[in-house]
Each structure stands twice: as C-alpha cells, then as structure tokens.
Design a protein that fits this description.
single chain, 106 residues, 4-stranded mixed β-sheet, 4 strands, 33% strand, globular
C-alpha cells in the first residue's frame, strides 16, 4: 500500500481469469531532466514466467511514459539476478555514472 498511496503512483496488474499473475508498481519521480517513471516493484508469478508477461508489463509502462512526454524509465535491480538479464533483454542498461549507496544504521 505504501507504493500505491504515493500521489504520483502508476501501476498495472496482470490477471489470468481471477488469479493475479503479475504486476508493476511505479511512481513518477522528479529528476534533474524532468519527471521519470521509477519502477519500484515488478513481478510475474513463477508459473507464468518466460511467457512474455513481464515484457507486456514493461511495454505498458513505456507506452505510458511516451504518451505523457516522460523521457525515461528507471529502476534498481540486483546484479547477477535473473531480473538483471531480463531488464537488459528489454533494452535497459546499467548506468556507469550512478551508484546505489547504502549505510547500515545500528
């Protein structure tokens, strides 16, 4: 709910009859070059992966961005994870000039 309650929330769900089989949850974020679509979460159930559903969800986000004059779609994902190669196949690339920073607070 914390993602969906964002005032600039954007999301799509994918259903097979009455079964939720995938979703992409995003929000519009202000960045140095204007708004971007930031993908916070995206998933397809394991039984439905490798059938093009993830690509369909990504295409809907990109269509929204294009129709609304938003210049880019951004996301974070783990290196070496299956999602990393999925996003590469969808045309996304790792930016060398950005780093995801982390500090553990104890």
């Amino acid at each position: 709910m914390e993602i969906a309650e964002n005032k600039r929330f954007l999301g799509y769900t994918l259903w097979d009859n009455e079964e939720l089989i995938g979703a992409v949850f995003c929000y519009l974020k202000t960045y140095y070059n204007g708004s971007v679509v930031f993908i916070e979460e995206m998933w397809v159930s394991p039984d439905h992966q490798r059938k093009g559903y993830g690509v369909m969800l990504m295409e809907e986000i990109e269509k929204y961005a294009k129709e609304n004059g938003i210049p880019s779609v951004t996301l974070l994902t783990g290196k070496g994870k299956p999602s990393f190669s999925f996003y590469e196949r969808c045309g996304y690339m790792q930016l060398e000039y950005l780093a995801f920073m982390h500090k553990r607070i104890e």
